[in-house]
């Protein structure tokens, strides 16, 4: 049982064109200052937006580039977040599943296999998973060193964060300031998540984050 859960946890943590002109070796002080200002402005916009957010919902597309398997897996679905610690990601398509995080509990329901995994949620274990990262981007300056790369914010963890080497954020001028993000890990895998139709503060109810499992579903519990 624990072996099945660990196998699934590893899968969850995984599943979860660049154009840049070479300007030479010399940059004026103004250019450097403007770049720093741009980074600070982006961080401030994200931080201010998150300060006012109570809940978020929208749709997403996820592409997982798995180097060892030389494969790209594509997923799509909907997500719901109620800050600080309630999340629900519904993956649709050929392998539908739900991932629900509510306070200190995580449940992964795999519809096709008619099975669910239930365990304790803690940021040390799952906080680096793409599904959990989105709710934590309001703490960028606390957890990451930030620079700019190819028009994106480049985040490098200040402390060890699982296998994550860096995260790239594409900002948006919309009400929700993040359009997409890319998670790069130490095994050269890459997960790209693009957000669409994002709405904030729509009044998501707590019952949305309570799983409704059919009676014939096998539920496997993991107790550390």
Number of domains: 1
Largest sheet: 12 strands, mixed
Global geometry: globular
End-to-end CA span: 12 Å
CATH superfamily: Lipoprotein localisation LolA/LolB/LppX
Helices and strands, in order, run as HHEEEEEEHHHEEEEEE
- The total strand number stands at 12
The whole-angstrom Rg is 19 Å
Range of helix content: 10-25%
Task: Indicate the structural class.
Answer: alpha+beta
Strand percentage: 35-45%
The helix count comes to 5
Please report the first level of CATH classification, the CATH class.
Mainly Beta
Instruction: Give the uncertain stretches in residue-range form.
Output: 7-37
Strand order of the largest sheet: 7-8-9-10-11-1-2-3-4-5-6-12
| Named CATH topology | outer membrane lipoprotein receptor (LolB), chain A
Name given to the CATH architecture: Clam
Mean pLDDT: 80
List the helices and strands and how they pair.
Blueprint (H helix, E strand, L loop, with lengths): L1 H13 L14 H24 L2 E12 L4 E12 L3 E7 L4 E6 L2 E6 L4 E6 L2 H4 L3 H7 L3 H4 E6 L2 E6 L6 E8 L6 E8 L4 E11 L17 E4 L3
Parallel strand pairs: 6-12
Antiparallel strand pairs: 1-2, 1-11, 2-3, 3-4, 4-5, 5-6, 7-8, 8-9, 9-10, 10-11
Task: Provide structural commentary.
The model is unreliable at 7-37 (pLDDT under 50). This protein has helices at 2-14, 29-52, 123-126, 130-136, 140-143; strands at residues 55-66, 71-82, 86-92, 97-102, 105-110, 115-120, 144-149, 152-157, 164-171, 178-185, 190-200, 218-221. Strands 7-8-9-10-11-1-2-3-4-5-6-12 form a 12-stranded mixed sheet. It has 5 helices and 12 strands. With 224 residues, it is α+β, with helices and mostly antiparallel strands. The relative contact order is 0.20. It has one domain (2-14, 41-221): outer membrane lipoprotein receptor (LolB), chain A (Clam), CATH 2.50.20.10.
């Amino acid at each position: 049982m624990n072996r099945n859960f660990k196998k699934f946890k590893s899968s969850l943590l995984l599943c979860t064109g660049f154009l840049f002109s070479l300007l030479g070796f010399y940059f004026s002080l103004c250019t450097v200052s403007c770049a720093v200002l741009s980074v600070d402005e982006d961080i401030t916009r994200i931080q201010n937006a998150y300060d006012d957010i109570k809940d978020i919902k929208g749709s997403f597309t996820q592409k997982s580039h798995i180097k060892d398997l030389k494969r790209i897996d594509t997923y799509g679905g909907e997500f719901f977040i109620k800050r600080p610690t309630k999340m629900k990601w519904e993956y649709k398509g050929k392998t539908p599943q739900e991932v629900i995080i509510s306070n200190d509990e995580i449940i992964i329901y795999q519809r096709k296999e008619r099975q669910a995994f239930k365990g304790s949620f803690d940021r040390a274990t799952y906080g680096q998973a793409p599904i959990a990262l989105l709710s934590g981007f309001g703490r960028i300056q606390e957890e990451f060193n930030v620079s700019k790369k190819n028009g994106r914010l480049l985040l490098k963890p200040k402390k060890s964060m699982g296998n994550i080497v860096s995260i790239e954020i594409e900002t948006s001028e919309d009400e929700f300031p993040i359009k997409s993000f890319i998670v790069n890990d130490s095994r050269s895998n890459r997960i790209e998540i693009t957000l669409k139709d994002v709405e904030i503060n729509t009044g998501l109810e707590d019952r949305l984050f309570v799983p409704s499992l059919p009676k014939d579903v096998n539920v496997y519990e993991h107790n550390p």
